[in-house]
Specification:
By secondary structure, the protein is α/β, with parallel strands linked by helices. 47% of the residues lie in helices and 13% in strands. The strands form 2 sheets. An 8-stranded parallel β-barrel has the order 1-2-3-4-5-6-7-8, surrounded by 5 helices. A two-stranded antiparallel ribbon has the order 9-10. Strand 7, helix 10 and strand 8 form a beta-alpha-beta unit.
Length: 331
């Protein structure tokens, strides 16, 4: 009897599949808040990442102490799933190299990613990424630490495509607040919240460019925060619009009550998950040749799409059809 070939082997031989990451990225800037986020992650499961914030979290003059705290939290037993990253200071700040030195040397084996804020060009982002890689090599690390790059300046938006093409880049984040501020009043403050953030022409253009650049290079596009901290309906609506209207596959959270509405709003539709499972099970039974499903033809092109649907469903905590769970995710 021929052993069934797993989708990751049948559909992506010789190439890397698109990264499927938790759909929520929760920012926390203090030891107390990072610890609380890690405890929530242990409770909810790895359905969201934690970004330990050095940029906005560190008090002036306390950058070294703060970076050491971040490294300690990433290394701690509370970091149950190794899904905690760090946002360093921006490339114009004198502490950014120190952030990298401390976090990579002390927690480089466990840090999930390093986020680079306020880059003004692809060359500037490349310099930081190169320094992260060099520091990792000096620390004796064999892994490449993924980089997440914030697009929140005019220069970064102009260079979104070459930034997304840089080695190790895994996520392009859109930073709404700084981007609006950089327009010197040409975009009203009301556009920092809904519905303006989804309707102002300059913001529609910027968000579409970030998503297009990310997806063209196999990188995950991440949406900005929702300013409403506690209303789950507003939070979920922002996440849903970001996903459906623009194609963002991930969104920031800045308050614990935002996490679950974001995750739920960005889950695939249950009916699509069922279809994905049925199609992939039939395809595997047919050795990944073309099949018919409910009167439609499916082949490897659609199999790849539906495999990503199943992976996204799983990483958002959805319950998969039992047979798909057994065959594809038993490990």
């Amino acid at each position: 009897m021929t052993t069934a070939i797993h989708p990751r082997d049948a559909l992506f031989a010789g190439e890397s599949p698109f990264p499927v990451l938790p759909v929520c990225e929760h920012f926390a800037g203090s030891e107390k808040l990072i610890g609380k986020a890690m405890d929530l992650q242990a409770e909810y499961g790895p359905v969201f990442d934690i970004t330990c914030d050095c940029e906005d979290g560190a008090a002036a003059g306390q950058e070294r102490v703060h970076a050491e705290m971040v490294a300690g939290m990433i290394n701690s037993a509370r970091n149950k799933f190794d899904r905690a990253g760090a946002r360093i200071h921006d490339p114009s700040h004198p502490a950014w190299r120190q952030d990298v030195d401390i976090i990579v040397s002390q927690a480089g084996g466990r840090v999930a990613y390093i986020t680079i804020p306020k880059a003004t060009s692809w060359q500037q982002a490349a310099e930081v990424i190169g320094y992260i890689g060099e520091t990792a090599r000096k620390a004796g690390l064999e892994r490449q630490i993924p980089a997440h790059v914030l697009v929140e300046t005019h220069g970064a938006l102009r260079d979104a495509f070459p930034i997304a093409a840089l080695p190790t880049v895994e996520v392009l984040d859109f930073g709404l607040m700084d981007f609006v501020s950089g327009h010197h009043g040409a975009i009203a403050a009301s556009a920092m919240r809904s519905p303006g953030q989804f309707e102002h022409a300059l913001l529609v253009r910027a968000k579409a460019e970030v998503v297009a650049a990310a997806l063209a290079h196999g990188v995950v596009p991440a949406h900005n925060v929702c300013l409403n901290l506690k209303d789950p309906g507003i939070i979920a609506d922002d996440a849903g619009r970001a996903r459906r209207q623009f194609g963002f596959l991930r969104m920031w959270s800045i308050y614990p009550a935002q996490i679950q509405p974001i995750v739920q709003a960005m889950q695939p539709e249950f009916s699509e998950v069922e279809d994905a499972a049925n199609i992939l099970l039939a395809a595997q039974d047919n050795d990944w040749g073309p099949i018919q499903y409910e009167g439609e033809l499916h082949d490897r092109a659609t199999y790849r799409y539906f495999w990503e649907v199943l992976r996204k469903a799983r990483i958002t905590g959805m319950t998969l059809p039992p047979e798909a769970q057994r065959r594809f995710f038993a490990d």
